[in-house]
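Everyone, study these two lines:
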Amino acid sequence: MKKSCASALWCLLLSSVLSPAQDLHTRVQQMKISYAHSGSIVVVDDHTLLIEPNMPSPMCAMPRNDGGRTTWSFYAFNLASITVPLAAVDETLIGENMVFTDPDATKAYKNGDVGDTTMVIVAGVQGKLFRALTYDRDKLTHLGPGPHDGSEYGQTPDNVEAFGLTFSDHASARAFENALREAVLLAKEQASR
């Protein structure tokens, strides 16, 4: 009887230790699947991801109503890769915007039109920066097909407070956001133990 109680207690203890790690692994797998059409995600260690967006990233245009007049903000996150320690992400600042990637969107836009791409914005906790490799968009677009060295398209290291990832499928963007938010909370919980 004592052996079976001790065995049951040991199994319960082991499952409580492994469960958060398995949950984190599950969330990372969900992020990988959701982001597969936009780039790749590599697990660096238990709590750090390397995100490699497809290059070149789209130029994103976002309309704003400025006193009854439409103005535009333009964004291009020229990331070759970004290293994301999950505990450095501010889960309350993960958000999304619908943006336009069609170069003629600013001319054809009618009030109420919805963008064709979802941009997920990720920001770090105050004082934390993400290590990134950025590139020169113009240099990259002027290169011919084939493999190229990073110096040919102006790849340089940088530190950024926030970054954006684009998804052509809104459902994938939402799945990514939810999995990232949960992974960040799990990583922070594990780090505080």
About this structure: Strands lie at 39-45, 48-53, 60-66, 69-75, 79-85, 95-99, 117-123, 130-134, 156-160, 162-167. Helices lie at 2-35, 105-108, 137-141, 170-191.
